[in-house]
Amino acid sequence: MRTAIAGLALLGLAISAYLTWVHYAGIEPVCTGISDCERVQGSEYAELVGIPVALLGVAGYAALLGSLWVRVELTALLSYFALAFSAYLTWAELFRIDAICQWCVVSALTTLAIAVLATLRALGAPLHHRPLS
Amino acid sequence: MGTMTRTSMLTRLGLLAALAVVAVFAVVALAGPGKSEPARSGAAPDSLLGGIPQSGITLGSPDAPVTLVEFADLQCPFCAQYERDVLPDIVRRYVRTGKLRLELRLLRFLGPDSDRLARAAAGAGAHDRMWQFVALAYQRQGRENSGYATQDFIEGLAADAGIRSLDAGTAAERQVRRAEQAARTLGIDSTPSFLIGRTGGRLSTFQPGELTPGAFVPRIEKELQG
Questions:
Q1: Could B13 and A85 be called an inter-chain contact, meaning their C-beta atoms sit closer than 8 Å?
Q2: Which value does ipTM take for this structure?
Q3: Which candidate in B13, B19, B36, B54 is best for mutational testing of the A interface (most A CBs within 10 A)?
Q4: β-sheet with B58-59: strand ranges across
């Protein structure tokens, strides 16, 4: 389970790192036909208090990865943060920017999968206070 | 693991999820774009224009086979519409790929705000950042002739366009006069108006049926083949 989450977090980390690089290099991300990444990346929603959301993604996925060796609840908490933030960004893409970028969609699905796995992992984990039989 | 403990973990996770949702909602509501002041960051124009050669009033490679000239007034709402709805597509498809170069000739027939903005944009052209300046001016376009283009407003545009000291003096004035003279010669009396043709050759007036990329693309393609 931990390996699966780590794999997904690495995928998210790679996407965010790529988008952060694109953001600072001022170039266009590679984009499929139906999406308009340039518009999404160039929108006011691409930054939160001056920080590119892609950079927040890098930090988030890195924290998720690190949390896998701390406590199961921490991974779950971070994954819920990531999922809530992704949901907000997806809402912004659909209803405010009127454009979608496939990188963001993949990242949103990745956080969804991580949140599901992190929840299952927390529920299945041996508890710290297992009652003595 | 007993049922009780599994339930308590479920409760705990539920609380964590609620905490995450509330926290993200709070941050977004407080710091998200919806709440920010109309003055926005200069990142947006640079993401479209970054890396494209710029010189004075022109955007794009000097070797591009086709030239599209726009006559505009920075207060004109249809010019802002063109900038928002048409320009990004044209820039991505034709300018960034070296097929098209754009020239922007700014007029000031709407009023004093237009005059101040046109001269300031010409000043931005001296730094080869006119297109960034213009993009921001359209994004923050105010009510026509409301006096919104104050010195502070213009300095804000310049700073966000990455220009340290803007000189909207005599050289800028000369450039705007050249644009006005060209407009008179061509009989242009509304904005946005367009000229298109092979670079270095004779340009002809072009009236798009509507301000959408679809109205421009066939004409640009035709010139590219011609």
A1: no
A2: 0.78
A3: B13
A4: B54-55, B58-59, B100-106, B66-72, B193-198, B204-206
